[in-house]
Amino acid sequence: MNCFWKSIKRNALWLFALLIMDIFSALLLWLTDVQAFWTLLILILLWSFMFFVVVLAYVNIKEKKKQKIFQTFISDPDVVNEEKLLQVVSQQEREQIQLLALVLRDNRLRLCNLSEELRDYEEYVESWVHEAKTPLALLTMIMDNRADELPFEIQTKLDYVCNQLQEDITQMLYYARLKSSTKDYRFEELDLQSLLKDVLADYEPLLEEKHFVIKNEVKEEQVFTDRRGLQFMLGQIISNVIKYSTDNPMLTTSTQHTTREIILSITDNGSGVKSYDLPYIFQKGFTGDSANNRNKATGMGLYLTKKMADDLNLKLDVQSEYNSFFKISIRFPI
Length: 334
What we know:
Blueprint: H1 2-10, H2 12-31, H3 37-75, H4 79-88, H5 91-145, H6 152-179, E1 187-191, H7 192-202, H8 204-209, E2 213-217, E3 222-226, H9 227-243, E4 250-257, E5 261-268, H10 301-311, E6 315-321, E7 325-333
Parallel strand pairs: 2-4
Antiparallel strand pairs: 1-3, 4-5, 5-7, 6-7
Helix pairs in contact: 2-3, 3-4, 4-5, 5-6, 6-9, 6-10, 7-9, 9-10
C-alpha cells in the first residue's frame, strides 16, 4: 500500500493532467446539452481512473524490475550487468549509467589492489615477527644456560630487555591481526586462575625489577573465550601496570561471580589517570598528560586491549584516582 501511494505521488502530475482533460470533456458535453450528460461524465471519470491505475501498475512493474537490475549492477558492476541495465533505462539515463559503471569498476579494481597489499603487509608482519622471535629465543636460552657466568645485575637487566622486546613484538603482531579481515580465534572453556598465573609468570622479571607486591585473589573460574586473545589482553594490562608504577608498587587481582557474568579485576596503586583523561584511555595513541612516566608511552596498549575485547565480546570497565590507583575490570558473559 505504501508503494502504491508513493507511485501516485511520483505520477501526480499525470493524474492532474487527466483530471484537467476530464473537466474539459465534461465542459464540452455540458455545452452541447447532451441529455445523458451525468451518465457520460461518470463513465469518463471511471475510464480515466481505470486507465490511470492500469498505467500506474505497468510503470510500477517496470520500476521494480529496473530497481532489481540496478541493485545487481551496483553489487557487481561488470559489463554483462551494465548491458542489462542499459536495456531498461531511458536514452537520457544511458550516459550516466555508463559513466557510473566506469567509476564503480575503477573503484573495485583499486579495492582489490588494496586488499592484496593488505594481505601482503599482514604476511610480512607475521613473517617478521616469527623471524625476530628466533634470535630472541636464542638469547633467552643462552641466558638460562649461562646464568651463573653473568653478574646478577646484568642478568636482571637483560631479562628486562628480553621481556620488553617480547612484549613489543607481540603487540605488533596482534595489531596486524586485529586489522586483518580474517580472524583465527578458538573459543573454549578456560581456567581463569591458571591462565592468569601463566601471564604473571611471563612478566615476572619485570615485576621483580620494580619490586612489585602481588596479591592474586583469583578463584577457580571457568570462562569461555579465546586463550591467546585473553592472554594478550592480560599482558597489555599488566604491562601498563608496570609502566605507570610508583614507589612500593602493588598489584591485586580478584574475581566476582554474578548470575550473568564473571568479572576479573586488576588493580594497582600506581600513578592512575586524571578524571578528565579517563574517557579517552582506549583511544589509539592517547597518553594523557605529559607526566614523566608517560613520556615514552605509545598509547597503543589499552587501545589494542579494547579492540581485542570487542572481538571477543568482552566488556571493559575502568576506575581510577590520580596518584592513588587504577582498576580495570574484564566482564565475561556466562
